[in-house]
Amino acid sequence: MKKIGKQTIKFDCPPSISEVASIVGPKESKGPLAKYFDECLDDEFWGEKSWEKSESKIIKETVNMAISKSGFSSNSIEYCFAGDLLNQCISSSFGLRGLNIPFLGIFGACSTFVEGLSLSAIMTESCAEHTLCAASSHFCSAEKQFRFPLELGNQRPPTSQWTVTGAGAAVISKSGNGPYITHITTGKIVDMGIKDANNMGAAMAPAALDTLICHLKDTGRNPNYYDAIITGDLGYVGKDILTELAQKERIQYKICL
Amino acid sequence: MKKIGKQTIKFDCPPSISEVASIVGPKESKGPLAKYFDECLDDEFWGEKSWEKSESKIIKETVNMAISKSGFSSNSIEYCFAGDLLNQCISSSFGLRGLNIPFLGIFGACSTFVEGLSLSAIMTESCAEHTLCAASSHFCSAEKQFRFPLELGNQRPPTSQWTVTGAGAAVISKSGNGPYITHITTGKIVDMGIKDANNMGAAMAPAALDTLICHLKDTGRNPNYYDAIITGDLGYVGKDILTELAQKERIQYKICL
User: Whole-model pTM?
Assistant: First the structure.
């Protein structure tokens, strides 16, 4: 791999996403992406006594499913990168403690899964045959931790988003039939001073744009190059902010978003 | 770099630790390592209104000091790996938000700094000239979060340890005069069921030994090879457990600890 531009890595031998798995909660099961998930749960508890235990179970089962679907033995997975939103990343560390794979905890909030994909890809191209990455979140445990316990029945402001209940996992391999991870552009912290825990989209939009612009500059590509440009969920408000900011930057960078 | 054995990476061109910096609190300033720290603080607040803000300031100033001592411009540092013990890694993300360096958050609790060193070294050998890693903790913020707020004046049990108030940072470079990072052995989660938040040494000792034994097996080395074998602080209780467990394993692995 080599660096191109300021923040982007280009892989010489792009690692392959061998297999993925996802398990999601009831709300996600009713959404437009439902058919793409491996398992849709009927309730937020999944037979556990707390939301945190449920989240741990979700990430554990998702990871087991990804490994199982890949057809590789878990012994052949050399590293696991995982994280979540809860304090001390308890979902992933408790959920994956039985995995017996060298473990590196990560915390990137909404970017955790992509951080995991990035580090897995780097590790795979550098020295491993197969690596694993995973991330989880849970609507109920996230509300309790970041906002108000659901039992309070607080009214939610119009800018509030709905944290996903679910987990995703991917097995990354040195060789395979793709899809491939060809480039990684690692973002910087961009803090525009948003302090409203119910307006995460506004908090994240400037960083999303900064990373996007950097990626386009580093690769010399135009947004038209892509079939889809996907960010973490910015919500309606954050997406509007991203679009507005992008239009301002357009003049400077001559990109078309 | 290449994998040797099960969990160990050996670097072909070992990255160099170009510079380090550390700032510590009042208790650490009175300890036997005091003369090695760059700055010793007189109080836990360092002019801030909360312990969390103080911790953020400590990691920020430590990182600035490491970069400044290294003589490299911060623009030449390509990646920053950092984390801490607080929820959502707030010390490092708030402390380092002004850094303007691509940022990857990590969470490994007591292993955070070594996880940062590992990932920085991998990134440096793979594709970067200079990377940075940092970690912080703060006795007062950690007690508040993991045990009891200090104001309660709770009695501390004999097994309780004293979380460091301080931060460490290191600049890792592709070339330099060392010390070099030659190998990395990444540990697995080893959970023997210790549930006492005041007995962290007992919780960590089995994982420390597991990683140590794996490193010795992978490298084919004997503990005598090393001038020092250093773990995260296991405390008196955890150290005794490690020694006892090691003696049991001795027969099987023929190592001498």
Answer: 0.95
ipTM of the complex: 0.94
- As given in the structure block, the two tokens for residue B107 are 């969470």
Cβ of A186: how many Cβ atoms within 10 Å? Answer: 24
Q: How many helices (H) and strands (E) does chain B have?
A: 7, 9
Contact list in B for residue A186 (CB cut-off 8 A) is: 79, 102-104
Could you tell me the pLDDT band of residue A29, with boundaries at 50, 70 and 90? very high
Those residues with Cβ within 8 angstroms of residue B157's Cβ, 6 or more apart along the chain or in another chain? B198, B199
Q: Which residue has the tokens 């607040």?
A: B45
Torsions phi, psi of B224, nearest 5? -60, -20
Inspect the interface and report whether the beta carbons of A109 and B126 lie closer than 8 Å.
no
For residue B201 the two structure tokens come to 């040494």
Tell me: the pLDDT tens digits for A141-157?
999 999 999 999 999 89
Cβ pair B128:A87 closer than 8 A: no
Q: How far apart are CA B252 and CA A43, in angstroms?
A: 48
| Average pLDDT value over all residues in chain A | 94
Residues on chain A touching B131 (C-beta within 8 angstroms): none
Residues 6+ apart with CB under 8 A from B158: B237
Q: Which comes out higher in pLDDT, residue A255 or A155?
A: A155
Structural tokens at position B39: 């700055």
> DSSP string of A105-137?
EB--GGGHHHHHHHHHHHHHHHT-SEEEEEEEE
Instruction: Give me the average pLDDT of each 10-residue run along chain B (257 residues).
Output: 96 98 97 96 97 98 98 97 94 94 96 97 97 97 92 90 96 96 97 90 94 95 92 91 88 57
Q: Which of B159, B117, B139, B143 is nearest to B28 (CA)?
A: B139
Domains delineated in chain B: 2-173 (3.40.47.40), 187-253 (no CATH)
Interatomic CA distance for residues A14 and A178, integer angstroms: 9
**Residue among B83, B125, B126 whose CB faces A107 most closely:** B83
Of B210, B228, B207, the residue nearest B218 (C-alpha): B210
